[in-house]
């Protein structure tokens, strides 16, 4: 008798690099047993405006997205910041085959935000209690950090106070 065991793994990563003094590039890559996809955006500083975007999506079971490049180009001019998620989804559309790409564009934007937040993180106090209070306050002041990295993930100690204020319940 032969055992048929389903094996599946997924690797998603987002990286950000400085192109020059006025531009950052963020790339989100996804690889799994069915999907090979990548989205790359360039954001102009200091307005955080998306000035270039490219990407591809290959999926074993999805039909090819018609005019993928045209769909991605719709987000040029969007500014990384509050309200961007709704804008990006509205511009790219509701096609089921685009869900993963919409998510990847959002991940690229969040990568930019987290990169720019790094300088603020370095201002945290050295003692553990001070760090905890600093980071907890940071996520309350900048909701876009919530659930965007492991430290600020739902249910973690750093966001407990924020979740209690926003959703009610014990801190």
How would you describe what is shown here?
The protein is built from 5 helices and 4 strands. The termini are far apart. It folds into 2 domains: 10-117, Enolase-like, domain 1 (2-Layer Sandwich); 124-167, no CATH class. The model has no long low-confidence stretch (mean pLDDT 85). It has 171 residues and is α+β, with helices and mostly antiparallel strands.
**SSE ordering:** EEEEHHHHH
Estimate the global geometry from the Cα principal axes.
globular
The total beta strand count reads 4
At CATH level 2, the architecture of the largest domain is 2-Layer Sandwich
**Discrete helix count:** 5
Task: Give the fraction of residues assigned to helices.
Answer: 25-40%
Sheet with the most strands, sense and barrel status: 4 strands, antiparallel
Instruction: Summarize model confidence as the mean pLDDT.
Output: 85
What structural class do the secondary elements suggest? alpha+beta
The N- and C-terminal alpha carbons lie at a distance of: 53 Å
Number of structurally distinct domains: 2
Low-confidence stretches: none
CATH class value of the largest domain: Alpha Beta
| Widest sheet: strand ordering | 1-2-3-4
Q: DSSP strand (E) fraction?
A: 15-25%
CATH fold assignment of the largest domain: Enolase-like, domain 1
């Amino acid at each position: 008798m032969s055992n048929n065991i389903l094996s599946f793994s997924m690797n998603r990563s987002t990286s950000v690099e400085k192109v020059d003094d006025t531009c950052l590039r963020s790339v989100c890559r996804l690889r799994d047993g069915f999907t090979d996809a990548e989205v790359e955006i360039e954001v102009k500083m200091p307005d955080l405006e998306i000035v270039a975007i490219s990407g591809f999506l290959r999926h074993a079971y999805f039909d090819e997205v018609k005019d993928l490049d045209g769909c991605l180009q719709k987000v040029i001019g969007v500014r990384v910041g509050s309200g961007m998620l709704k804008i990006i989804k509205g511009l790219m559309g509701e096609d089921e085959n685009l869900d993963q790409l919409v998510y990847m564009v959002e991940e690229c934007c969040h990568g930019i935000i987290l990169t720019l937040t790094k300088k603020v993180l370095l201002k945290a106090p050295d003692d553990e209690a001070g760090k905890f209070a600093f980071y907890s306050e940071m996520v309350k002041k900048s909701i876009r950090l919530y659930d965007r990295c492991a430290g600020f993930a739902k249910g973690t100690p750093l966001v407990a106070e924020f979740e209690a204020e926003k959703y009610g319940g014990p801190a």
